[in-house]
Amino acid sequence: APTNASDTEVGAAGELHQQAGGSHPQLTTNQGLPIADNQNSLRANPRGPTLLEDFILREKIFHFDHERIPERVVHARGSAAHGYFELTESLGQYTTAKILNEVGVKTPVFTRFSTVAGGAGSVDTPRDVRGFAVKFYTKEGNWDLVGNNIPVFFIQDAIKFPDLVHAVKMEPDRGFPQAATAHDTFWDYMSVTPEAMHMVMWAMSDRTLPRSLRMMEGFGIHTFRLLDKDGKSTFVKFHWRPKLGLQSTVWDEALKIAGADPDFHRRDLFDAIQNGDFPEWELAVQLFSQEEADKFPFDHLDATKVIPEETVPLKVIGRMVLDRWPDNFFAETEQVAFCPSHVVPGIDFSNDPLLQGRLFSYLDTQLSRLGSPNFHQIPINAPKCPFANHQRDGHMQMTQPKGRVAYEPNTLAADSPRETRANGFHSAAVPENGERGRIRAESFADHYSQARMFYRSQTSHEQAHMASALVFELSKVETPRVRTAMVGHMRNIDEDLARRVADGLALDAMPDAPPSPVPVQDMPPSPALQIIGKM
Ligand code: HEM
């Protein structure tokens, strides 16, 4: 309620003291002590030193001093919203997961979109990959689909991730640039990482300049498994497709927007939801068997590859609607903890070595980010179904379990939680053989064929944007070797693209293409990979 003169007192120096009453509760300390004066600290005399005794001042400043927590090591800048997922077509034939069986049931979700490289206070429209993370609060526990707006990734093995991120983020001596690309360390690392070339093509496309968070696709990227009641598994890839179509800005627009409104994407999502224009996505899957995977000319465990929609068509199975902005940015958007290892019975992992490393990383980082092993108890992270186990204590423990028994199995407690073999989580029974070792399969060796397919799938103006993006980016690189090495990689992808970039950079001579471990194949261009084709 607005302040009016009758509930406001004026202090000795003219400062205003608003009084509790009516709809205004009492202002208290964290111990519930009503505060008489929130404008003046306790002084030895009106112009004298402040007294250490002032526990009200100390409590208030102590808490303020600790308001910030570490930002995410990647994907620090994000915007999120609540909504629901509704299954429209059952996958009951393939999986026991209730969320993929119960047509028409609305499952609550919390979805966070992010940039990757910039800090929490950076702008919304740099050229960068966007995170697309969905937490489904299912009846069988939380399922997190922690994806990006691009269906492939830079690297094939999680052991490379810290190096990738160190190359992408601001350079450690100078503390800039905040942007993901357009600097020496990013392009230096790309130039010596041939497996990144497919992702580099996507990163240089208009996909990394989304018009709106509401107009982005999302991808689970990795191959996952669905398990039926007999334990039979089917491979699955997940795709989100925006109802508003896939739309991008051009580079010039993105630059101007970054200056005019650093919160452009956050504000757009907020405004749309406040206005009742709830953004919506279709969830689609690609389903395939081991036998089909064995025939692909690439490895389905390799996160640098797409499975062309012409090879395995998309099947739309549901929709997600985001219809509620969080009440509190910190409590929800900042404290939410997504984790690729959060799955439900009937969904399991594949051997993708990038996914396998992710299964460790998120829980681990969130302990240092959120400060306590009990961060699953924060309301945004807690499952909305009952959950119970014998884990105890720890920093910030919020539960108060009763009784003597904190172990299992036991015979002393009549109401303690126990296993459920029938509908609990089972891992796929997969035969494994071969020799142990730090060896990458040769089936991961083709780094250029899909990069070529993607480039050649673009319309001519999309290709022109990619060539300009490469020229702009590489012209920011100070090290000549890095520029020429990247043009060399382009020659393996598309000779015309390499020529355009070399001309744009005014290179004296065309550099040699690096040897490819396997011959580069011409795959038919895929209309499904064009932005323009989806609008
Ligand atoms: C955060 C996606 C690979 C480690 C995130 C987020 C997304 C994401 C969307 C932000 C989640 C949020 O909004 O809170 C992906 C995708 C990957 C990938 C799609 C590849 C397909 C990796 C790998 C690692 C990793 C290989 C480590 C081995 C992290 C960490 C965070 C993060 C540590 C911060 C999590 C937090 O503080 O809550 N990732 N990521 N990611 N990712 Fe990844």
TrEMBL record:
Its cofactor is heme. Residues 28-416 form the Catalase core domain. Its EC number is 1.11.1.6. GO terms for molecular function: catalase activity; heme binding; metal ion binding. Residues 1-45 are annotated as: Disordered. It catalyses: 2 H2O2 = O2 + 2 H2O. GO terms for biological process: hydrogen peroxide catabolic process; response to oxidative stress. The active site is at 75, 148. Keywords: Heme, Hydrogen peroxide, Iron, Metal-binding, Oxidoreductase, Peroxidase. Heme binds at residues 72, 112, 161, 358, 362, 369. It comes from the Bacteria. It is an enzyme of class 1 (oxidoreductase). Residues 25-43 have a biased composition (Polar residues). GO terms for cellular component: cytosol. Belongs to the catalase family. HPII subfamily. Decomposes hydrogen peroxide into water and oxygen; serves to protect cells from the toxic effects of hydrogen peroxide. This is Catalase. It comes from Noviherbaspirillum pedocola.
